[in-house]
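In line with agreed milestones, work has continued on tokenised descriptions of protein folds. One protein thus recorded appears below exactly as we store it:

>
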Amino acid sequence: MTGALEWEDVPTEFRYVPDHPLHVTIRFAPEGAPPVTWHIGRDLLHEGLRTTSGLGDVQVWADTPTERDTAWLQLNAYGALALFSLPVPELEEWLDRTYLHVPAGTESSRLGTDAFLSELFDGPEASAR
């Protein structure tokens, strides 16, 4: 281990844009350091409130099934590990509001995949038709 475990409050902003329905943007602004932005799957966050979710660089889990006051968000990049505690009630309420805007299972209808594939395979003139 290269350093001691330190806890500090990190101002954090969660954003959800319905035009990019598969992910949540999280902007961390630690004091005395440049802000860091991560894009994390909305479903990964939602699932992490109930069970361990994610592999590799991003993992989310709640304390226990009976005591779900805190969720843990672990980010791993370039050999550095950061662990954030998140209040489950507030995160759950916020995520529920995102699902009101874009219900689960309807995300692909907002991606514009057909237009993208048409332009990719048929060229720009196909999407203008």
